[in-house]
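Illustration: Olfactory receptor.
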Amino acid sequence: MEKAVFVNQTSVMFFRLRGLSVNPKVQMVVFFMFLIFYVLTLIGNILIVITIIFDRRLHTPMYFFLSNLSFIDVCHSTVTVPKMLRDTLLEEKLIAFDACVVQIFFLHLFACTEIFLLTVMAYDRYVAICKPLQYMTVMNWKVCMILGGAMWTAGTIHSISFTSLTINLPYCGPNEIDNFFCDVPQVIELACTDTYITEILIVSNSGMISMVCFVIIVVSYAVILVSLRQQISEGKRKALSTCAAHLTVVTLFLGHCIFIYSRPSISLPEDKIVSAFFTVVTPLLNPIIYTLRNEDIKSALKKLIRRKEIKEK
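Result:
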């Protein structure tokens, strides 16, 4: 395998990304398919954020967290997809070492923050369904701001710790990453030192966060389902619809995190497909699930479009 260019014979200046495929026809299919997904992701999530901002009826804790989710999905997808689309058209897919580190930082910042956000949203639904009379007292705006600040702070701390683990390792070749973006497991595989302790830290950090949050979310929805048995059918139907949408997002998103970060840093053939789904498909599912299943969002969006049409006339 071709060696990298070095700085002081110890640091790799760039990495080569293998991408999703070396077949030109497959690459073109991937390019157009992922471009469509990315554009739809931007349009869908940005529309949700704008709609929530401009419709005062949606200024509630639930939609505050939903707007955060849409914002994170736009950022999360943008960290990897534009670079991947550009690389699909190039024969040699290179990324500078510094750019690789930056990509790792923001990838984990947005991914970890989303994990905590999904957990907070599960708690919000639990309070709304199981304790409706206390909802506005428990989930007041001060609490929402504290929870929002806490999840972004925790995501930042997690990302800094992961980036530090990666950047402090020596890299002296090979320099080929078996993926279409930089992530900690694939990068530390290339370190020219024993990474056993680093891998343990990754599993105990990211893997544990994913598992614990997943268990908390499942338990919260189990409690919700037990509570719904005592409610009328219409209320039960709407609550189940909301819970089903949330659980779909949680399962797809946390499923990737558990699969990638709860095992040693060994590349598997499935990693690329799981990563593509995680970075390209999942951010698109949120606007589809929440917009098409949520009457309030659809009504507010129609109202916003009509307002725009009236102004243009």
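Reading the tokens back as a structure: The longest helix spans residues 97-130.
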